[in-house]
Write a structure and sequence with these properties.
This protein is mainly alpha-helical. The protein has two domains: 234 residues, no CATH class; 102 residues, abc type-2 transporter like domain (abc type-2 transporter like fold, 3-Layer(aba) Sandwich), CATH 3.40.1710. The chain is 66% helix and 6% strand. It is built from 14 helices and four strands. It has a four-stranded mixed beta sheet, with helices on both faces. Helix 3 links the parallel strand 1 and strand 2. Helix 2 packs antiparallel against helix 7, helix 7 runs antiparallel to helix 9 and helix 10 runs antiparallel to helix 11.
Length: 371
Amino acid sequence: MNLRRLRALVRKEFLQILRDPSAIAIAFFMPVFLLLLFGYGVSLDARHIPLAVVVDRPTAETASFVGGLERSSYFAPRFFPGMRQARRALGKRRVDGIVWLRSRFSRRILRGETTSIGVFVNGVDANNARIVEGYLEGVWQNWQAQRALAAGQPLVVPVKGQERIWFNPALRSRDYLVPGLIAVIMTLIGALLTALVVAREWERGTMEALMATPAQMTEILLGKLIPYYVMGMGGMLLSVAMAVGLFDVPLRGSFAVLLLVSTLFLLVALGMGLLISSVARNQFVAGQIAIVVTFLPAFILSGFIFYIPSMPAPIRILTHLVAARYFVSILQTLFLAGDVWPVILGNSLALTLMAIFFLGLTLRRSHKRLD
């Protein structure tokens, strides 16, 4: 390997990147756009849920229970005079649930009898329906505890759970989504951008000119890898800075470990991008393959949004072939839990093996021939 030729190839690639606004946009503007979109626009937290409240006979007991709903940040109660109007609002998706306090509600409570609350939940969105049920159960239990305390009577509960939430005590979905989004961003920069740029060189004929030079194939590949590695790490650092500084996502793990595992994942993404470009020498075809093979699996099958253990068994097996799965697990651990070495080392080993496989396969398929 001739270092002088390698330096010239790297310089040539950097000059080409500077002359290509689309490459700079994908590497630096796309991360900012995606982080702002997911950080502010996408949330898995259920807050201010529109809830219809129907009270047949207002009393002090119903007022105290409804007050618990109004004080909760999870609900935005809307009062209706009867169930007919409330059901109409539920059918039109103006509310996500109905709480019905029947006329005998207060009378049975004052007599010490068992009573019930009518709860109707829109089950079109099953996940949101379960969240609404859980929140209503929490409001009901809290109201019972406060009522027992006001009466000076102990609330008899056979089993009382003591909950402690580790790693994300605020239960903010942003702290969970933003670290995973970094893996998607690096997939875009590493695989998609590399596949498109190299395919463009094949279309324009500049790759044939490189083949005619004395440069070895290893030098040509390194000349492609080094600039896009620098761009990928720059996009990663920008994303981490926005995650910590703008979205207040904690980084509890080692920054050096973060750099190391990011390097491993970026090598996998770059290897996949170069391999795609060696197979598809057309920008459109290379872009389609890169989206289907790298971006979509990183978005859907990495655990970034969708919980992997809840997937069917064949899909769970398929996720082991997605490099972003291992990187997302490491990122979420480093940001929220810290340096948990069993998680970091196991997933890093998988990334190392995948980097060796894709880079080795790319080198094996790359020859200084036009066939």
